[in-house]
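Task: sequence design from structure.
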């Protein structure tokens, strides 16, 4: 079996790079919808026995209860900053359970059960660090490892190569997975355009959750975002993004 760890920012301040398209309340709604997509997949996955949400958002405890998962307030871990928080939480989770731990972001609205199975299979086969990169191959959206190969967390700009370089320097085997549902995180308008363009996005109600597709597809909010995105790419609309999704 395996565990999953999901860090979650304060949803009130989430997705600031979308401020030109969405109001604060809309950004919060989008961030919550995406993390619910992720939790819906993780909480019912047959190979994942424990999911832990780490956050200081006021609604995080209720969200965890809704999906039947564990909740740790970030402030209770005694450290600050994403990388330090992940290091502390990972050490606690692996202290008495020698199994694969998957650390992943909560803004992956296309995440699917099959992709999680692929990650777990690859990590166990490799016996090292599996890195799920973003669609540009620059950032890191997921890390999978066990107690014998805990990486130094280096989330931030250019984190994919930093995670790989750090693991190799420590003598750990590494593998990079490029899977659509892991690669597409939503941080900026181009990411939203890619989300609207991908055919996977039409699949609503996966794992019983309304979530991102229900929030944006066929809704006034989704129509308004599409118009705004078209104004940013007047020559070709979303066609360029469709090629990269």
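Answer:
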């Amino acid at each position: 079996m395996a565990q999953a760890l999901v860090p979650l920012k304060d949803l009130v301040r989430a997705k600031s790079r979308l401020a030109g398209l969405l109001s604060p309340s809309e950004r919060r709604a989008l961030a919550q919808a995406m993390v619910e997509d992720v939790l819906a997949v993780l909480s019912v996955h047959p190979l994942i026995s424990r999911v832990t949400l780490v956050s200081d958002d006021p609604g995080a405890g209720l969200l965890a209860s809704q999906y039947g998962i564990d909740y740790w307030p970030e402030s209770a871990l005694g450290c600050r900053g994403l990388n330090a928080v992940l290091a502390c939480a990972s050490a606690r989770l692996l202290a008495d359970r020698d199994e694969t731990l998957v650390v992943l972001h909560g803004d992956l609205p296309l995440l699917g059960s099959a992709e999680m199975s692929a990650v777990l299979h690859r990590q166990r086969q490799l016996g090292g660090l599996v890195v799920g990169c973003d669609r540009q191959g620059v950032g890191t959206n997921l890390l999978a490892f066990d107690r014998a190969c805990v990486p130094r967390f280096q989330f931030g700009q250019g984190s994919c190569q930093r995670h790989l370089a750090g693991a190799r320097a420590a003598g750990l085997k590494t593998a990079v997975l490029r899977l659509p549902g892991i690669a597409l995180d939503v941080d900026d308008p181009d990411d939203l355009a890619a989300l609207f363009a991908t055919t996977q996005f039409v699949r609503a109600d996966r794992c019983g959750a309304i979530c991102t597709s229900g929030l944006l597809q066929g809704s006034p909010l989704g129509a308004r975002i599409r118009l705004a995105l078209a104004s940013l790419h007047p020559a070709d609309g979303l066609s360029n993004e469709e090629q990269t999704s």
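The two ends are 31 Å apart (CA to CA).
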